[in-house]
Amino acid sequence: MKGYPLFDRAISLVYVLMFVGFGCSLSASVPADSLSRKIESSLTISGYAKYLQSTLLVGGGFAGVPDALLDQFLGNSIHDHLIHTRLNAVLRIGSVSMNWGWRVRTFYGDQPRLYRLIGEDYGREIDRYANDQADMSDLFLNRKGWVIHAVFDRSFLEWRGKRDEIRFGRQRINWGKASLWNPNDLFNAYSFIDFDYEERPGADALRWTHTLGDFSSFEVAVRAVDSLRGSTLAGLYKGYVKGVNYQVLAAYHQDDLALGGGWEADLGMWGWKGEGTVFVPLSDGSRSTVASISTDLTRTWESGLIVGGGYLLNTSASSQASLFADLNERVDARNLYPYRHSLFGQIGYPVTPLFNTNLAVVYSPGEENTLFISPVLAYSLASNWDLDLTGQIVAQDNGRSYNSPLQAFFLRLRRSL
Predict the structure, then answer these.
(1) What confidence category does residue 367 fall into, taking pLDDT thresholds of 50, 70 and 90?
(2) Residue 287 confidence (pLDDT)
(3) What pLDDT, on the 0 to 100 scale, is given for residue 5?
(4) Cα torsion 10, 11, 16, 18: sign
(5) Which three-class secondary structure state does DSSP give residue 180?
(6) Which helix or strand (DSSP H or E) is residue 27 part of?
(7) Backbone torsions φ then ψ of 227, nearest 5 degrees
(8) Element (H, E) at 7
(9) DSSP 198
(10) DSSP track, 40-69
(11) Biggest distance spanned by C-alpha atoms of the chain
(12) What does DSSP assign to residue 39?
């Protein structure tokens, strides 16, 4: 990926200095009595290892793949295996910290082979969405049925003062308030369907946060890509009034003027969240103004029972939209879900302290009246060991009845380090 040479070099220099500093911190020490004030330092390392086995039962029209091709090579099921490891490291020296997150995934199964059958490259597709401006990924292996991919999805330098915080590098800039869809998440929007990526994508950006008081602050962040029209420069103000946490934002976002805000409030036993952003084109007359608005209500009982529901308005949705595109593409704050109107409901209950259940349903009225159904069973096997089974079922109205072109089931074992 090519971009601004100066921006690329600056990011690369910071990463080199971070690693040099990391190495030096392990081998060098300074006597405490030689300093007028002791500088505290610490190194924190964490991570996990996961194994994910997936089974997709597919019907006609799955992701545009011809039925004859599926029948000939795969039948009606697709089986894949993923070994996902992650290592996080934070080195703190006084008010400065260096942060890394390294993600390594090994894929094996039918999808890499299926991509080759339709003339696509599964490994290159994975790598295409792994980076932002700087290229910090490696495709170690990309052969028939096998892909090994690694990426630094976090690598930033942070300075913290009394009221200020500055970050530079690949980081998560989370401006979202709502539970499922986040129109305020201009820098690294994500799809809730990708449940195996808890950390969410990072953006190569410079971010400054200034605290004004106990409940108020403002942030300024800038992200550069390969052209000025594709960049994002945004400001966010957070405040509090009469029991409501709120925020307002204004941004130049990829040749749009973006104006939005969000809120979070307690309504008795219910928690109410919401946010919205309007995107107004600045130069391209062929594009229209887009609005993305999300809101949800959630209640939790003492027993652990959780009930919630919400709504998304997406005026950028196309009449030809398909949920299959959202399963594979990186989403944007303008287009968080492929349908104009979407309603979701959720219920979760801990059967025992070690066994949790959850069911989420998203309904999108329209020509196909699409349903997305996701049940989850999660069990804690032992300290640092977790096992869960997740389903993702798509159902659509063909005019006579509902049919399901996709039923996906994921069995995941996780070991936290």
Answers:
(1) confident
(2) 84
(3) 44
(4) positive
(5) coil
(6) helix 5-27
(7) -155, 155
(8) helix 5-27
(9) T
(10) PEEEEEEEEEEEEEEEEEE-TTGGG--HHH
(11) 82
(12) P
Q: What distance in Å separates the CA atoms of residue 231 and residue 253, rounded to the nearest whole number?
A: 6
pLDDT of residue 116: 80
Cβ proximity of 334 and 279 under 8 Å? yes
For 402, what's the count of Cα atoms within 13 Å in the CB-facing half-sphere? 11
The average confidence (pLDDT) of the chain is: 86
Dist CA 75 CA 85 (whole Å):
31
CB atoms inside a 10 Å sphere around CB 227: 11
Tokens 């500088």 label which residue? 39
State the pairing for strand pair 370-382/385-397: antiparallel
Asked whether 145 and 159 are in contact (CB, 8 A), the reply is no
Please give the single-letter amino acid code of residue 241: V
Question: Which of 232, 202, 225, 231 has the alpha carbon at shortest distance from 1?
Answer: 225
Length of the chain: 417
* Residues 152, 101 contacting (CB under 8 angstroms): yes
Cα separation of 83 and 50, whole Å? 6
Nearest Cα to Cα of residue 146 among 105, 179, 175, 185: 105
pLDDT of residue 318: 72
Q: Going by C-beta distance under 8 Å and a sequence separation of 6 or more, which residues neighbour residue 112?
A: 122, 123, 144, 145, 146, 147
Phi first, then psi: give them for residue 15, nearest 5 degrees. -65, -40
- Alpha-carbon Rg for the chain in angstroms: 23
Stretch 17-40: mean pLDDT, rounded?
A: 47
Cα–Cα distance for residue pair 278/293, rounded to 1 Å? 8
The 10s digit of each residue's pLDDT in 130-185 is: 888 889 999 999 988 899 999 999 999 999 999 999 999 999 999 999 999 999 99
Asked if 195 contacts 327 with a C-beta cutoff of 8 angstroms, the reply is no
Taking CA 54 as the corner, what is the angle to CA 50 and CA 55, rounded to the nearest 5 degrees? 165
CA distance 46 to 59: 41
Strands 355-364 and 370-382: antiparallel
What is the amino acid identity at position 309?
Answer: G
What is the Cα–Cα distance from 147 to 104, expressed in whole angstroms? 11
